[in-house]
Amino acid sequence: MSALLDSIVGSYADDSRRDKQVSLKALAWARVSTDMQEERGQSMPEQLRQIREYAEANGIEILEEYYEAASAFKKNSHRAEFDKMLARAKSDRTVNAILVHDYSRFSRDSLGARLLVRELLQAGVRVISLNDMEVDTESVAGVYMEAITFAKNEAYSREVAFHTKKGCRANVQTRDLETGWCYKNGGQPLWGYRSERLIRGEVKKGRPLIKSIWVPDDTVVAGKPVHEWARHCLVELAAKGASLDDIRDYCNSNGIPAPRTQYWGSSTWHSLLSTNALLQYAGYGVWNVRGKNQRHNPPSEWVIVEKAHLPLITEDEARAIIAIRQKHTKLHAAETGAKARSKDSRFLLSGGLFKCSRCGANMAGFRSQNGKGRNGFYYVCGSAQYRRSLGCGPGVFVDKQTIEQAVFEEIANGFEQWSDIKSFTAKVNNVLAEMRGNQSKSNSDLRGRLSSVNDKIANLRKAVEEGLDDVSWANARLRELSSEKAKLEDTVSHDLCSAEPPQLDVQQVASCRNRFGDLLAYGTNRELRDLIRCFVDNITLTPAQDTQKTNKPVAHEITLNLKAMPAMFVKGMGAGRGFEPLTFGL
């Protein structure tokens, strides 16, 4: 018997030694949001250097390094590297840690950061900070310390944001003593202007103090300075009632490059003819037009400064354009062919999910009523929709119903592969049994309280029979106890301990899973769009080249990339399964 015990103890000791020898496999994460962080020794190379040293000293293997320059308050949809790192951490089972310089590099949103850390922890991935105190989140003190750490980071970031905004407000109202124009806070100038950098003293460590003002852009294109083209489009076209499409076509036909791309789109001119842009063309400085999530602030919150830079148009000309545009507002969607950008749009793949691989533009929703055999709803390359295919090629019309049906079929296939019927059935049955046990315990407690109330009622009645003096008090107390008894009797459910808890069987679960497609018949457009984005990473159209120029239909390719299954989809049931891109012809 002793030999058996010795072998068992020895096997546990071996397991313990093996556990100690297992090293963490981690992803490294670094982030900076300002140049000032470079000065404080928080540059991305420095963060990564410290992370590597920590990993080497603690026997941690770094599988991959991720980094980006972005605000920790930035929307996650705009933090591509951060999202890529999280996706791998959740899908790759070999990853069990993420190393960060400090938690503020991970996120400064205290609530969102804590939820994300907990989500990663449930997926088996620890977030390890090199410069924050390690806390045990399972202890009471650890919960407080974790909350304090993340709250400190968020408070610091918000304080920085407050002072930055205050500085920006003051900067746009400060005039340069030499030129007389107001300073700008950065960003791309309006088309027709360029930013001129001025050195105005020095800051810490001898760095020059750089200020910017706007001056007319005198770059010559198509035989005329850009600022003259801008004035011509504003005064000779927009002020005289030209539509957005008319101005777009005029610029493209004259070889005038757009501010960001070679060709103009109607939406660009819609932005340039907005009220705040026209104020700036008239020489006003306008700041704080947009707030969080790029939403427009009300004009009462704008900071407007007169004679902030040289005007390209007069105030009367600006008012004339505003009056014309107000008449065109209701016609804007029709004149541009654009559809309202709404989460309730009938085009479920719009909004950047479906792209043209030829030019990178989004595939836009389009309703064709040309009477030439192509009537209905389609997706077409945004260049065809907004730039008459300039910069891309002949428009390819993808039937809305065909592509969306194909996407839903692949989502159903992915869902089927992700869900393990037997494991899911066992997990649900375990939960049902646990719920039944909790219910039985609750019923037992309630029955105990009910028995106690009955005893009190019996004792009180016995006291009355034996000659209790204060009968009025006894009657009042009996009414209270009777009321409490009635409530308990209504609350107590039937005792389920003797009955077997209900059990799902594999056939029932399989039947429900096979009806996954029925959800599509009852979901709203918003729900269906959200469902697609839970499963689909991106969709690309690769138009075929008609090299023979036969003008006959040619086969196009559409590639659908499904996401790896989120680790929290169904914990422990095939999490992390990835999928090869699906390519099919059109």
In short:
This protein is of the alpha/beta class and 586 residues long. It has 20 helices and 17 strands.
Plain-language structure description:
- This protein is of the alpha/beta class and 586 residues long.
- The chain has 20 helices and 17 strands.
- A hairpin with a 5-residue loop joins strand 12 and strand 13.
- Helix 9 packs across helix 10.
- About 6% of the residues have low confidence.
Determine the CATH superfamily of the largest domain.
Putative Large Serine Recombinase, Chain B, Domain 2
Number of domains: 4
Distance between the termini: 73 Å
Classified by CATH, the class of the largest domain is: Alpha Beta
Reported by name, the CATH topology of the largest domain is Hect, E3 ligase catalytic domain fold
Tally of alpha and pi helices: 20
Helix content: 40-55%
Strand order of the largest sheet: 2-1-3-4
Round the mean pLDDT to the nearest integer and report it: 78
Major sheet: size, sense and barrel closure? 4 strands, parallel
- Unreliable spans: 15-22, 35-41, 331-340, 566-578
Radius of gyration, CA atoms, in whole angstroms: 34 Å
Count of strand segments: 17
Structural class: alpha/beta
